């Protein structure tokens, strides 16, 4: 368990906790802060499919921390150089899409972890300020254990390499993107994150994580799916999204108005 002040995500996972994260695509710091204040222990900023640019991400990370949650950032596809930037901004976890091979996993680790595990460049001034860590040597000593790398498993190729990816030093979590995985495993024939093929793949991913001593993670559309998958061994679970929360709230009010 990490001793670095101001960092909670890695410690929760190391303690065996199940961590739920909100998921945000809208580049509005007030949105991520609001979701964090509702009790999510982590909130994820989505730079891959969301609308977050660098300036919004800097402010969003601070807003999440201010609200008492752990900030996580999903970086764009293949943009491993942005992993260290997000960590320098104060992110506690980095989600990297489409990690298909050991080479992908190593490239991700190289950007996100300091030597001897990786080759992360030094520059965490903002991260240290937000976390209240004035000692540079302490940050360097503890950062690898205090930050979390989440490799997304989304393709047939990734499934073929699942044990090797899970065994890559410096990869902390295998995080499943079930929609892309369903597309990949069906060779583009279907989009069904709950298909029998995906369900079978989820079991293989949990087994690979257990074998390698890593955490299994999964994106879930709702709380019911998340709690069910937690019972199957997944311990880092995304629940819905900011747009989904907004749509559901608006739709509920409109239904009430129409029924009045």
| Helix residue percentage | 40-55%
Low-confidence stretches: none
Mean pLDDT: 97
Strand order of the largest sheet: 1-2-3-4-5-6-7-8
The N- to C-terminal Cα distance equals 54 Å
User: What structural category do the secondary elements indicate?
Assistant: alpha/beta
Number of helices in the DSSP assignment = 13
Main sheet characteristics: 8 strands, parallel, barrel
The whole-angstrom Rg is 18 Å
- Write the H/E string, N to C: HEHEHEHEHHHEHHEHHEHEH
CATH domain fold name: TIM Barrel
Q: What number of domains?
A: 1
The CATH homologous superfamily is called: Phosphoenolpyruvate-binding domains
Q: Approximately what portion of the residues adopt beta-strand conformation? A: 15-25%
The shape, in one word, is globular
Number of strands: 8
Question: Can you tell me the CATH class?
Answer: Alpha Beta
Task: Map the helices and strands.
Layout: H1 9-14, E1 19-24, H2 29-37, E2 42-46, H3 54-66, E3 70-74, H4 81-89, E4 93-96, H5 102-112, H6 125-131, H7 136-146, E5 148-153, H8 156-160, H9 162-166, E6 173-176, H10 178-185, H11 196-212, E7 215-220, H12 223-230, E8 236-239, H13 242-259
Parallel strand pairs: 1-2, 1-8, 2-3, 3-4, 4-5, 5-6, 6-7, 7-8
